[in-house]
Design goal:
By secondary structure, the chain is an alpha+beta fold. It is about 40% helix and about 20% strand. Helix 2 packs antiparallel against helix 4. Bound molecules: phenylalanine.
């Protein structure tokens, strides 16, 4: 019996002598002594073998053991975790560097630059303009007078009503500003952000366009087609099929939309990628360009739509969520 009474005392000594060197050792100690299958459990269980008159003393002894173990754990836990942190902060100068993450260009920037490069080869220069536009440049000069029903084609964000100030709904106003400022020949593309109150898997309230305009003497629809053929072959490959469909825009006459053929699950499908046409003489007059002397063509396309086709992306919102797993799939920065 007496050995049973001795046991807690021996264990208490063991505990007091214990000095852990690491957090791991301390954890081992905790499991060994006060864990659910630990020594203290056994000590407590043994109380039923202790004669009744000694049970009280035995109980007190075991409690002392328990408190000693807990005290030890708390004390070293603090000390060791400080030490652990400190050890981790030591810099090992011989260690190889963590490497650098070069990042990648955003898919929209990649495609936008490709479009710019292609038109650059054809002699187009870049024109830029404000994203907050007045009514004249975004609508009226483009042959869209107030109350013209075609204004409904573009779901406009208004910043101010009467006189109207809007977030530009296309980059055509940049072309108006260019024509107001320079005499023909004019050959510019205007890449930039545009805004429309539209939001689903294929429309975003903010998206990017590249529009182009060429004004000179005797510019014809044939030249427009040739330019766009060149663009499509460069952008999508020389075997890409394309077609023009008659359409309507207030600022061009005649107007067309251009589709390219693409493969959807083994089936050929047509996808509209841009609008175009010959600049309406009224638009030229609005910019003080003589429509009897000059003609021109214009076209406009959405960068996201082209990027979706090129990269096989189904949801436009992926471009704006900035999920690193999506973004890192595109080419590294150059
Ligand atoms: N501005 C038109 C749009 O945003 C595109 C376009 C430009 C159409 C030039 C024809 C000519 O939808």
């Amino acid at each position: 019996m007496s050995s049973l009474m001795e046991k807690p005392k021996l264990i208490l000594k063991e505990i007091e002598a214990f000095v852990p060197k690491s957090i791991d050792e301390l954890e081992q100690f905790r499991i060994q002594y006060i864990g659910s299958k630990g020594i203290l459990k056994t000590l407590f269980a043994e109380i039923r073998n202790i004669p009744n008159e000694q049970k009280k003393i035995y109980g007190q002894l075991v409690n002392e053991v328990k408190q000693a173990a807990e005290k030890k754990i708390n004390l070293f836990k603090q000390q060791l975790s400080k030490k652990d942190k400190h050890d981790k902060q030591q810099i090992d100068l011989s260690m190889p560097g963590p490497g650098n993450n070069p990042g990648s260009r955003h898919p929209i920037s990649i495609i936008r630059q490709q479009i710019i490069d292609i038109f650059h080869h054809l002699g187009f220069t870049i024109a830029e303009g404000p994203e907050i536009e007045d009514d004249w440049h975004n609508f009226s000069a483009l042959n869209l007078p107030p109350d013209h029903p075609a204004r409904d084609m573009q779901d406009t964000f208004f910043i101010q009503k009467d006189p109207d100030i809007v977030l530009r709904t296309h980059t055509s106003p940049v072309q108006i500003r260019t024509m107001e400022k320079y005499d023909p020949p004019i050959k510019v593309i205007s890449p930039g952000r545009v805004y429309r109150s539209d939001n689903d898997s294929t429309h975003s309230p903010v998206f990017n366009q590249v529009e182009g305009i060429y004004i000179d003497e005797k510019v014809s629809f044939a030249e427009l087609k040739q330019t766009l053929y060149y663009f499509v072959k460069e952008m999508f490959g020389k075997n890409t099929e394309l077609r023009f469909r008659p359409s309507f825009f207030p600022f061009t006459e005649p107007s067309a939309e251009m589709d390219i053929a693409w493969n959807k699950n083994g089936q050929k499908e047509w996808m509209e990628i841009l609008g175009c046409g010959l600049v309406d003489p009224a638009v030229l007059s609005n910019c003080n360009i003589d429509p009897d002397q000059y003609t021109g063509y214009a076209f406009g396309m959405g960068v996201e739509r082209i990027a979706m086709l090129k990269f096989g992306i189904r949801d436009i919102r992926l471009f704006y969520e900035n999920d690193i797993r999506f973004l890192e799939q595109f080419s590294p920065a150059v």
